[in-house]
Amino acid sequence: MVKIAPYGTWVSPLGAADVARAGTAPSWVRRFGAEVFWTEGQPLEGGRSALFRHDGARVRRVLEAPWNVRSRVHEYGGLPYLVLGERVVFTNWDDQRVYLTDRDGTDPTPISAEPSTPQGWRYVDLVAGPGDAEVWCVREDSSDYRELVALPLGGGPARVLGRTHHFMTSPQPSPDGRHAAWIGWEHPNMPWDSSELCVAAITEDGTLGPHRVVAGGPRESVCQVRWEAADSLLVMTDPDGWWNLHRIGLDGSVVNLAPGEHELGGALWQPGHQWFAQLGRGRFAVLRTNRLTVLDERSGTVTEVESDLPVWSNLDADTDGVVVATAAGPRSDWTAVRLDLSTGELEVLGTPGELPSVEYLPEPRSGMFDAPEGHRIPAHFYPPTNPDFEGPAGELPPLLVCAHGGPTSHYVPALDVDIAYFTSRGFAVVTVDYAGSTGHGRAFRELLKEQWGVADVRDCATVATALVKEGLADPGRIAIRGGSAGGWTAAAAITSVDTFRCATLRYPILDLTPWADGGVESHDFESRYVEGLVGSLPEHRDRYLERSPISHIDHLAGPVLLLQGLEDRVCPPAQADRFVAALDGTGVPHAYLTFPGEQHGFRAAATIAAAAEAELSFYGQVFGIETDAPEVGLHR
């Protein structure tokens, strides 16, 4: 029998441990012959990243603890491994050196030199060099100097291939070994603002000759490149404002294979990410805003592939028509998959964690909300979902508004156990693609230009207000939550508008000037990111002070919960420390939880579970809801 109980108090089979187990989402799925490899987080092993392979019959773990297959380049990492025949090459997190092993992970041996300081050299985006005798990759040192290097598999010193830009990625030798291609960009641009595709001849000594730019430039972003033949490249770039797939010849020819206002690429946060793969005969597997499609250049069409798992990421494929990737659905967690396009057979390769009945998992309702400024705001609404409970007549549920990180990113309508943890207890949740989000073309991304902390806050408030008007949320019980740049948006919202009753800030940016001005409290990759989001320095220094949430403690609309990793080099704990110090004694209820050993984003099971329980307890205390979480102490 269905019980009537206040929203937020419902008894749920989803616990904090289930949220922690969901931290195993696979990534970097690649095909190597008949086998499929991928990495996968291990929350119960301290959050390390393990390497797996599916040999056609079953899943095997390639590397046991303590090996951690993860790169630190740009602090966000990227493609950390490569398979060459029977050999596997990978970057190990602890020392950031590159190691060589076999497909069973036997006795890994370093092939990169030991740096003079711990993690002093970091490697990412590993690809096979000409003849498979060496590995090409990006090397970053502790002074933020980057170059393309070759690591001989047989040992010996690295050979520097070349350096053309402050940031470089995607080194690609041509099929005939005569040329190389790569992507580069300079401060203050981010790769999605402006980047260049470079091509150079490989000289007799194996280094790169003078380069020329064949794609990209001001307000054009190249996010993926692959050689198609010795004289042509396949390039995902956006000269017309949308990431489309192009063929670019060394003779200067450029052909858009399927022109249209569709986003077939994405923001290059992590080197090595893939949005397209060749299928042969003029056909390509392509991700259109995380939907698997087939692009046919003969007809110039992009056709969606029907699948039980409609949300896809980071794909790979071959001319046999078999695609591998990570995939998920509204009620299916992320897993590694293999899809045969000729038969439609979808095989789940990984082993997703056990979840309760789908009846406890929310079905998102995707929609668009009208912004007063004229644009439309995409969002996914997750209603309270629990077959055992209903809310009292006349009561509306509390609403959690989620602001994504980046901010150059977007949400997808895939299962998020963190969201289900709350909806199964009677909360409503909405994820907002505010102005600046990806997946909707360059013009939408650039709506956030110099408007960070304004347009993003406004769009989140607009969506929350619209849901209240629709009778889907209690106007007096609305929270905003986010991590990293999403934490910034949540903090900016709770200090500038009165829509939200409270805010949860995970590893947030709170003080712009030290984060942006010379990267005093940030890292090189993003040290000038804010110039495009807020304004150039020193001309707009006053704007940095005015936008920073730490400058407006006296305007807080309600309580705040801060969750911070103590080894975070992207959003360092010093920011949260100052914010909390300014809060102490103000009378505003707040809680501050720190987690030793955690970097940017939580990976260990104990941390993830503690953060989920703290957040539930926080909302319970603020909204007057009796929850099943251990109480987190609020200070004033």
UniProtKB/TrEMBL annotation:
Annotated keywords: Aminopeptidase, Hydrolase, Protease
UniProt entry tagged with the keyword Zinc: no
Pfam family name, one: Peptidase_S9
UniProt GO molecular function: aminopeptidase activity; serine-type peptidase activity
Domain of life: Bacteria
Entry annotated with the keyword Hydrolase: yes
Cited InterPro entries: AB_hydrolase_fold (IPR029058), Peptidase_S9_cat (IPR001375), Xaa-Pro_dipeptidyl-ppase/CocE (IPR050585)
Peptidase S9 prolyl oligopeptidase catalytic domain location: 416-624
GO BP annotations listed: proteolysis
Family annotation (PANTHER family): PEPTIDASE S9 PROLYL OLIGOPEPTIDASE, PEPTIDASE S9 PROLYL OLIGOPEPTIDASE CATALYTIC DOMAIN-CONTAINING PROTEIN
Protein name (database record): Dipeptidyl aminopeptidase/acylaminoacyl peptidase
Organism: Actinokineospora cianjurensis
